[in-house]
Amino acid sequence: MADIRRSTNPAVRSAAQWLARVNGRHPWSHNEHFHGWILRNLPARRRTALDVGCGTGVLAGKLAARFERVIGIDADAGMAAAAGERFAGDPRVSIGRQRFDAFPAGTDEGGEGGIDLVTMVAVLHHLDLDDALARVARLLAPGGRLLVVGLAKVDSKADFAVDIASAVANPIMGMIKHPRPVRPGEEAGETSSRPLMPVRDPAETLAEIAAAAGALLPGASVRRRLFFRYSLRWDKPGG
C-alpha cells in the first residue's frame, strides 16, 4: 500500500504541496500533540520515569512536575546536550547521551524492575523492536507502565484511509494550535539554533508492532491514531 506522503501521482503530489504550504504557515508538533495522552495515562505510582529518546526535554519537563525523578536519554549528541542545558541545576531530572540498548540496569540510573514509567515518543522505530520491548519489560517495576507514541509503515487500506484523514485534518489542527500565520523567514529564525531531530522511516507495520507487543507484552493495547501516529500502552503485572 502506497504512502500518500511519497506518492508519485501528480494530483496527490499537487494536493500534498498545497497542504505543505498551509502547514508551513501554521506549524505544530505532532509529537507534542500526544503529550496530553501520556499525561492522562500516568501510572498511580510515580517515583521514577524514563523518557527514551528525550529530544530537547519537553516531555521530561512535564513529567518532572509529576514524578519524584525523571531520567532522559537520547542517542543523539545535540539532543542530549539541549536537554542537559534545559535541566542544568534541576535535581529532579538527569539527562544522558545514551542508546537504549545500553541503558544501565542495576545501577543508580534505574535498575531492572525499578522504573514506574517508560515513555517513547517517535522513538521505537529507531530501535530493534523486539529487543526494546523486552528491555522495557525488564526495566519496569511491577505495576509500572509503558506509553509509546510511534510511527508505523503504511501497509493496509486502513493505514491509507487514516493517512488521508490525517492529511486533511493537519492544517485545521495547525490553525487551531498556531492561528497566527508564520511569515516568510520567521520560522527559520526561530528554529535555526535548535538541534535537528534525527529522522528515520519506520520499517514495521502496525500489524507487526501489535504482534510483537502481544508476544512480549501480553495485554498491551495498540491503537492507530490520527496524524501519522499509533499509541501503545502496557502495564506490567503486579504492583
UniProtKB/TrEMBL annotation:
Residues 179-198 are annotated as: Disordered. GO terms for molecular function: methyltransferase activity. One of its GO terms (biological process) is methylation. Residues 50-146 form the Methyltransferase type domain. Transmembrane segments: none annotated. Pfam families: Methyltransf_12 (PF08242). InterPro entries: Diverse_substrate_MTase, Methyltransf_12, SAM-dependent_MTases_sf. Keywords: Methyltransferase, Transferase. This is Class I SAM-dependent methyltransferase. It comes from Actinospica acidithermotolerans.
